[in-house]
Every structure is written in structure tokens, then in C-alpha cells.
């Protein structure tokens, strides 16, 4: 895909059914293997359901940002969540998904830059995220974009995984998150 500028808008609850398959395809199942962000060798099952996306959209200080490609007929090609923590002046970057057939073409960089700008414009002076510690290539991608890997470790939400549906499970033991942060 060319480096054409994406267009962005905030998601509404009505967008959740459109967003869920995009997020799922970027991380789980065989389709995710077409990209480089797959978690298919680590986890199986549903990454997030429609109700979970609606919850993110409706959470105070949270925005789910949708990215569309004008060169692809304004198709939805990526999304992310920015959860603002106003008292700490921090934005949390999550639920980042790019269509796996379009990864490695510059879409992710544009979405990340847009999310950082959104956080800045809403008072954040830092952006934080968590990445599964085994995802070294992904962590290196964020480091190249100015993020620093901290010494902080956060536990993987195995309980939440089990609540999603009966098919969800980890395929490997010892899953936990590294915390990355960037000054905005």
C-alpha cells in the first residue's frame, strides 16, 4: 500500500461490530499470520468481543480511533484505543490493530502518530503501553518510534482471558507485559 494519508475518526458504539473482526484478524487465528503482529502462537480464542469494544468506547477518558484509507475506498484499515489518565497526564495506548494484509506499509506509524497527537491535545505529556514480553520484534518497533522499555512488569490478565469464551487460552506459560513509555 502507498503511504497515502489516512483519515481518522472516533468510534461510536455502533462501530463496534466493524472493529471487532479487524482486531481479531490482527492478532488471532490464521488470518493474523499474514501480518507480523500475530499472537497466534501465544494465545487462541477471542482477542476482544463486541461488548468489550463498546465498553472501551463508552469508558470516560477513552477514545477508540478508527483509521480509513482513501486509496482503498475509505476502508477501515486500523484502529487503536487511547485511555487518558488526566491526573497523571498519561495516555495509555492499546487495542492497536492494522489489517494484517496491509501491515509493514506505514499504516501503523500513522495510527501511532495520530494517537500520540490525540493524547497530547487532551493534556497527556506521556504515552504508555504494555507489550507481551516475548514480542521482541514489536517492542523494537516501538523503541524505534521513541518508546523506552521500563523496568516495570505487569501481569497478564489470565482471568479476563478465561471470561471471554470457552475457547480462550494461553498456548505458552509465563506470559506477562513489559511497560513502554514515551515523552510526548
Folded structure, characterized:
- This protein is an alpha+beta fold.
- It has a single domain (7-183), classed as Aminopeptidase (3-Layer(aba) Sandwich).
- It is 30% helix and 32% strand.
- The protein contains six helices and nine strands.
- The protein has helices spanning 16-27, 29-32, 50-58, 107-121, 136-144, 158-164, and strands spanning 7-10, 43-44, 62-69, 75-85, 90-98, 126-132, 148-155, 169-170, 176-183.
- A seven-stranded mixed β-sheet has the order 1-3-4-5-6-9-7. Strands 2-8 form a two-stranded antiparallel sheet.
- Strand 3 and strand 4 (75-85) form a beta hairpin.
- Helix 1 (16-27) crosses helix 3 (50-58).
- The longest helix is centred in the middle third of the chain and has 15 residues, at 107-121.
- It is globular and about 40 Å long.
- The protein starts with 6 loop residues before the first strand and ends with a strand.
Q: Which descriptors would you attach to this protein?
A:
acyltransferase activity, transferring groups other than amino-acyl groups, Acyl_CoA_acyltransferase, seven-stranded mixed β-sheet, globular, two-stranded antiparallel ribbon, 184 residues, Aminopeptidase, GNAT_dom, 9 strands, 6 helices, alpha+beta, Acyl-CoA N-acyltransferase
